């Protein structure tokens, strides 16, 4: 794998602005930081999507938000409503949480319908969907089946975690998700990518997006290492 440029690494980032304590001023600063670095997207609290879309207008940084966050227990119809409203407000990427309890119960028809409903709503409006598994609560068999379902319903990414469970992205999980997802489904790592070294490790496994709060620190470290 060739050495990436700093700009290429920046385009891997979904700058996460989901912490419950963030104020509107914090969210605005986060959007401006993302715009400065030209990252892939800002993943912001749902109520602030319109603010993000306004601040990011004219840049290539996408406004993204969460659906069914953080436990996935919303009714499917509510998830679809969240997706539609987010797109109305300017979101072009959606990070949806699977119904974790239904996954653990093995109710795969429910899980597949839940994911497909959001994917269909998003794709109808040219938006993209990242499906959050929350791997900390799952066995490998659950992760593999979710990868299969996401491939079938044409989700755009499979994503390890919300960042709010007891653990986030592990190298083992990322290998599993890349191996068991079809080529058209990308892999996003969230939770635990906090250094340049870790970023390069997950990139080597085929990860194309990283959800992070430490975007500034990681990219500053990348700049030092790459000399760019």
Features:
single chain, 228 residues, alpha/beta, TIM Barrel, 8-stranded parallel beta barrel, 8 strands, globular
Description:
- The protein is of the alpha/beta class and 228 residues long.
- The chain has one domain: Alpha-Beta Barrel (TIM Barrel).
- It contains 10 helices and 8 strands.
- The chain has helices spanning 6-10, 24-37, 49-56, 76-88, 100-104, 108-123, 140-152, 171-180, 196-204, 215-226, and strands at 13-17, 41-44, 62-67, 93-97, 128-132, 157-159, 186-190, 209-212.
- Strands 1-2-3-4-5-6-7-8 form an 8-stranded parallel β-barrel, surrounded by 6 helices.
- Helix 6 packs across helix 7 (140-152) and helix 7 (140-152) packs across helix 8.
- 46% of the residues are buried.
- The mean pLDDT is 97.
Entry summary:
The protein is of the alpha/beta class and 228 residues long. It is 46% helix and 16% strand.
Radius of gyration, whole Å: 16 Å
Main beta sheet strand tally, sense and closure:
8 strands, parallel, barrel
Distance between the termini: 18 Å
Strand content: 15-25%
Question: Looking at this structure, what is the CATH superfamily?
Answer: Aldolase class I
Helix content: 40-55%
- Given this structure, which CATH class is correct? Alpha Beta
Derived structural class: alpha/beta
CATH architecture: Alpha-Beta Barrel
Average pLDDT score: 97
Number of strands: 8
Trace the largest sheet across and list its strands: 1-2-3-4-5-6-7-8
Q: What count of structural domains?
A: 1
- At the fold tier of CATH, the topology name is TIM Barrel
Poorly predicted tracts of residues: none
């Amino acid at each position: 794998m060739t050495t990436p440029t700093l700009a290429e690494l920046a385009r891997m980032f979904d700058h996460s602005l989901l912490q419950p304590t963030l104020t509107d001023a914090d969210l605005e600063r986060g959007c401006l930081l993302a715009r400065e670095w030209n990252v892939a997207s800002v993943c912001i609290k749902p109520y602030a999507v319109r603010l993000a879309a306004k601040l990011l207008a004219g840049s290539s940084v996408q406004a993204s938000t969460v659906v069914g966050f953080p436990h996935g227990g919303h009714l499917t119809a509510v998830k679809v409503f969240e997706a539609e409203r987010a797109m109305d407000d300017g979101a072009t990427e959606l990070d949806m949480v699977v119904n974790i309890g239904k996954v653990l119960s093995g109710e795969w028809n429910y899980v597949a319908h839940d994911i497909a409903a959001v994917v269909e709503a998003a794709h109808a409006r040219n938006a993209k969907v990242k499906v959050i598994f929350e791997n900390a609560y799952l066995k490998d068999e659950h992760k593999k089946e979710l990868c299969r379902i996401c491939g079938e319903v044409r989700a755009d990414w499979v994503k390890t975690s919300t960042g709010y469970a007891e653990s986030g992205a592990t190298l083992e999980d990322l290998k599993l998700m890349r191996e068991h997802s079809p080529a058209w489904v990308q892999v996003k790592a969230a939770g635990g990518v906090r250094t340049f070294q870790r970023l390069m490790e997950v990139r080597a496994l085929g990860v194309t997006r990283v959800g992070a709060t430490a975007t500034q620190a990681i990219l500053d470290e990348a700049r030092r290492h790459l000399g760019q």
